[in-house]
Amino acid sequence: MLLTTSVGSLPKPDYLTQARSQTRRGEMDPSRLRQLEQRATGEWIKAQEELGIDILVDGEQYRGDMVAYFAEHLGGFKQSGLVRSYGNRYYRKPILAGKITRPKPVTVDWWRFAQKQTRKPVKGMLTGPYTIMDWSFNEHFPSRRAASLAIARVIHEEAKDLERAGAQYIQIDEPAISTRPEEMDLAIEALGLVTRGLRAHTITHICYGDFKTIGPKLRRLPVDQIDLEFANRGFELLAFFKGKRFPKAIGLGVVDVHNHRVESTKEVVANLKKALKVFKPDQIYVDPDCGLKTRTPEEAKEKLRVVVEAAQAVRQELMN
Amino acid sequence: MITTTVGNFPKVAEDAYTTKVIGAISRWQRKELTDSELERVFQEVTKAVIQEQETAGLDLLTDGQVRWEDLLNPIARKLEGFEINGLSRWFDNNIYYRRPILHKAPRWTGPILVRDYQFAAQCTSRPLKAILPGPYTFAKMSEDRYYKSEQKFTRAMAEILHQEAKALEHAGAPFIQFDEPALGFAKPNMALAVEAIGIVTQGLKAKTALYTYFGALNGNLGSLMRAKVDVIGLDLVSSPKTIMNLKHVPIKKTLALGCLDGRNTKLESVTELHALFNVIRKILPLEQIYVNPNTGLEFLPHEQALQKIQRLQEAVVSYGER
Ligand SMILES: [Zn+2]
Question: Which of A264, A259, A251 is nearest to A309 (CA)?
Answer without folding.
Answer: A264
